[in-house]
């Protein structure tokens, strides 16, 4: 089991309802794209899956573990199996890129190794290999505050690749990359998940990128699931309705209207 959310609600301290009774499940090894207008609840949903926010309604089961009533050690162990790619990765500016990448496995290492790795990187070849996948191995020993926004985003992706999490959550993971690199990087995340049998959930601003790369699309609007469909069943009407409140056409990576759903899933989609 990848995850199962049942009637999950989340209301922020200021009364803002971010999630209103979301039920959503994924098999282990499935890859899902979340799309929807700004403020729809995509980040909130990913934050619940990341165990960063606790729902105030409903139940959540992640990687076969029920969240409610979980002890602190069990929660730590669960978190070590969940990897998050942030839109703006929270990598300390003064830290070396190598250390930031290796931090992906801090939760899996014994305390002595995690502490030692902060002082002296414990697996330089591993970090280099992860960075090479995002074409950033030349920045291995650079400081994070010497990276551009796009390079920082790729370093965050290298960190999650290095972590080898069973559940990978990506919140606008390629927003700072150009269209070609964005597509290649999303496919890298999908290929990595497919090879390892990991579950991947990615929120994407660009609807065409979601349709081109993922086999399952979940549209979120107003904290609810507007649709949850195989990509080949997503119609232009679904997309227009999803983004109607913004008075816009669905946002795309490439100029022009969002391509209608392909008749068959994109050939490079490897996830089930
Ligand atoms: N920390 C917070 N405190 C209060 N309200 C919040 C907080 N974070 C999000 N919200 C509210 O929760 C709702 C869902 O926000 P969320 O960030 O999940 O949307 P989103 O779909 O990720 O949007 P975007 O695409 O703009 O990032 C919005 O109405 C937002 O204003």
From TrEMBL:
The answer to whether the entry has keyword Ubl conjugation is no
What keyword terms does UniProt attach to this protein?
ATP-binding, Cell membrane, Membrane, Nucleotide-binding, Translocase, Transport
Mind telling me which InterPro entries this protein's record contains? AAA+_ATPase, ABC_transporter-like_ATP-bd, ABC_transporter-like_CS, ABC_transpr_PhnC, MetN_ABC_transporter-like, P-loop_NTPase
Q: Does the keyword section mention Hydrolase?
A: no
Ranges for the ABC transporter domain?
A: 3-247
Pro residues bias (residue ranges)? 252-265
Give any GO molecular function from the UniProt entry.
Answer: ATP binding
Region (Disordered): which ranges? 247-272
What PANTHER family has UniProt attached to this entry?
Answer: AMINO ACID IMPORT ATP-BINDING PROTEIN, PHOSPHONATES IMPORT ATP-BINDING PROTEIN PHNC
Name of the molecule in the record: Phosphonate ABC transporter ATP-binding protein
The record lists the organism as Acidovorax bellezanensis
């Amino acid at each position: 089991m990848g995850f199962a959310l049942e009637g999950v609600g989340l209301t922020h301290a200021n009364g803002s309802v971010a999630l209103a009774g979301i039920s959503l499940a994924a098999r282990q090894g499935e890859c899902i794209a979340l799309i929807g207008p700004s403020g729809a609840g995509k980040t909130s949903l990913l934050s619940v899956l990341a165990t960063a926010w606790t729902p105030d309604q409903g139940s959540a089961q992640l990687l076969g573990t029920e969240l409610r009533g979980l002890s602190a050690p069990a929660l730590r162990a669960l978190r070590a199996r969940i990897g998050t790619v942030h839109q703006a990765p929270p990598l300390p500016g003064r830290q070396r890129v190598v250390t930031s990448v290796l931090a992906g496995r801090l939760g899996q290492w014994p305390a002595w190794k995690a502490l030692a790795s902060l002082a002296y990187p414990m697996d330089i070849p591993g970090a280099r290999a992860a960075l090479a996948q995002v074409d950033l191995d030349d920045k291995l020993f650079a400081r994070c505050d010497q990276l551009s926004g796009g390079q920082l985003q790729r370093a965050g992706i290298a960190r999650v690749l290095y972590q080898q999490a069973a559940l990978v959550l990506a919140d606008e993971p390629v927003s700072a990359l150009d269209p070609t690199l964005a597509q290649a990087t999303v496919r890298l995340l999908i290929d990595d998940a497919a090879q390892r049998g990991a579950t991947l959930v990615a929120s994407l601003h660009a609807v065409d990128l979601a349709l081109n790369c993922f086999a399952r699309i979940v549209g979120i609007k107003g904290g609810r699931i507007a649709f949850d469909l195989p990509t080949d069943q997503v119609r232009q009407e679904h997309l227009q309705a999803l983004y109607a409140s913004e008075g816009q056409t669905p946002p795309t990576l490439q100029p022009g209207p969002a391509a209608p759903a392909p008749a068959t899933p994109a050939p490079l989609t490897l996830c089930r």
